[in-house]
Each structure stands twice: as C-alpha cells, then as structure tokens.
Amino acid sequence: MSQDYLRTRRRIVTIIMLLGLCLIAIPSLDAASLLPGDIVVTDFDTSALIKVDPLTGDQELIAQGGNLDRPAGLTMDSAGQLIVADIGSASLGKLIKVDPITGDQTVIVSTHSLVEPVIDANGDYLVTANAPGYSAYGVKRITPLGDETWLSSNGYLESPEGICFGVDGHLLVADPSSGVLGPEDDILHINRTSGVQSVISANNLFMDPVDVAVEDADHIFVLDDLLNALLRVVVSNGSQSIVSSGNLISNPNTMAVEASGMVLITDHANGLLRIDPSDGSQSVLSSGGYFSVPQGLYVVVPEPAATGLIMIVVTTCGLLIRRK
Predict the structure, then answer these.
(1) What domains can be seen in the chain, in order of their start residue?
(2) Is 90 exceeded by the pLDDT of residue 162?
C-alpha cells in the first residue's frame, strides 16, 4: 500500500475518533430541559414546579410534592439546578434544589418561611425570610451547605417578599409592611455585604408592594397585589407611576422581565400574564392546566458565551484544531 493511502486512512480514523469524542461531550437535549427564555412557575396549591413555553404557553410538569409543600420564589444556579424557596407550614420553610430534568429534590436547609431567593457571586443564596411569630424578619444568607446567617433583619424590614439585584450589584427588596423604622409599603436597597438598609420609594401609590424587578439603570418595576397594578419607580428620586392595572391583573404575586423587555406576572385568578410596559397592554400567556394558585416565577436567561472552546475544522488536506 502506498504511503498516501496509509496517511489518508490515519486521517480518517483520527477524524472519526475526534468526532466521537465531540458527540460524547455534547449533552443530550431532553424534552424537559430548560432553554433560554423558558419560564418556570411554582404553584402554591398543587405543590408543583411547572415549565411554560414562552411562545405557546404550553405547560409541562417538572416536579410535584415530595419536599415541595408551598413553593414560592425560585431561581437557577450555575449548574442549571432550580433553587426553590418554600414557605412551608407553621412558619417552617425550606430551601430546595430541584433538578429540572429528573425532578429530583434535595433540601438545602429547613428554616424560617422563605419567600424568594437570589444567588450571590460567591454561590451563597440570599433569601427573603418572612415568618410571623418570630423576632426577626429580613434577608438570610444561606451557603450551599445549608449554613445560615442574617444578612439584614428588622429595621425597615417587617414582611419582605420580592428580591432582586439592582444595577449596582446590591439588593432591592419589596416589603409591604411597616418595620420598626417605618415606613409601611416600601422598596428597600440593601447592601449585599454589610446588610445596611435604605428606602428607595415608599407609600404614595403603594398599597402592598410584593415584588420588584429592574427595568433599566434608573427605573424599576414594582408589583402591588392590593392596587392590582404594575408600577414604575424612578430609582434616583423614588417617584412612582402606574404602567398597567386592573383588567387581567386581579390578584398578582410575582413578576419577571423577559429579554424582550416584556413583563410576566403570576396572577392567582388569571394564570400567567404578559404585560407590554410600553403601553400597558395585557394578555394571558398560560392558564388552567397545572395552575391552581400560580406563585413564583423564573425566566431562564442565556448563558454567557463560552471561552476556551476547541473548534475542529475538517479540511481536504487534514485536520486543523483551533482554540477559540
């Protein structure tokens, strides 16, 4: 056999082996996998996590029962696992990790009634804790191993619910009740390191602000479940205005902002709503099905662009391996 023939065979074998390794490294896309833009809703009454298609509104059950009792807010960690705050019963709640593909559940910690989590840069969970009958209310720092401390408690905080990161990297918290320092019905800024609290906006149009989300550098959305309204607050001066109210918004609970800028709202009466903040128009994205009392809400965000990837380029003269 000629040397050219042998070289060609070796190249073909090498290509097959490398392509085989690539196929092994590519994760399978299970039907239940969560993709960017997908929506996950918790249901307070059916103790369920439900995936909702952002285009069709079709629902798919992720997990139900087990450690899930009264699931509220949720987020997703860097490994793609859902982190669910469960209010629980008798003021005893849990923080639960749920695999979105298998539905497997792991309790991270059992503690005060927990309302909504976010994840700090170091991997800790920062969770609003709202437990009537206890001496402290506020934001807890919980490690992935379940160790917990109060990041910020009492002060302006009395019944903290919605939480998110502001554009400055610190926390925004919706608190509809009056803390020791007052006032009632406020949106707070909380330093994620020191726990120091300050008021961004209070009272005025607010009746019961239960959730908060960032719109842009100087505007946040606030959801009010007694006013039945989505509001816009100017962070720099605390001024408030109504974006959309009434009609389909009749018993709202939580919200999330999609990549398009549209606002999603869970509503006990009408399911999962989509609001256009440019004109306040409302529509129902999903209702019925697994929904009974839809509560928490999370929109899967795109992962950052990967670095250090190996690109395999097959050419007519051989195999080139390039690092991107």
Answers:
(1) 39-299 (2.120.10.30)
(2) yes
